[in-house]
Amino acid sequence: MYCNHAAIAFILAAPLALAACGEQPKGENAEDFAARVNGGGATAEQTARGRPQPDGPRDPSLPRVAADGSKALQQTAAYTRPNPDGTADSLLIANDGNFTLVEGGRTQTGTWEWLPDGKRLRLQGVVRQPIVLVADGALYRMQNENVPFDDVTPDRTYRLAPSAAE
């Protein structure tokens, strides 16, 4: 029987080399990875397993997440976010299923849909921050569906103009 010791050593060492390169453990899905990276924050899937999502931002000056997004969302009203250069970005969610997003002077239009939790919607075709979390008088742009509800910051907050919020 022929035995190639170098080949056997390579076969035995390959899994160790892959593990050293940062391969994710088998069985870890995207939601578990996001929760681990975000310090254990609950994801939508974890919420379904009985662990509730936080109801708002860590920063008390930011609006709380709406209990019912469809009731809190002011459709056809522009939510705005000021930029350091004095301009403002805006996001308008229309009741016909369309949106208009103005960022950095560029306008993008498309369609939107509610996510199953009724608190977030997805802007179809938007690559950067496509998920919108509805708050009382504000919208938060989120990177993806696995971001915990308390992971919001002022730079991703679009607010209603005072006259529209009344």
Automatic annotation (TrEMBL):
Domain of life: Bacteria
Signal peptide as annotated in the record: 1-19
Region named Disordered: 39-89
Alphabetical UniProt keywords: Signal
Identification of the protein by name: Lipoprotein
Origin species: Pelagerythrobacter aerophilus
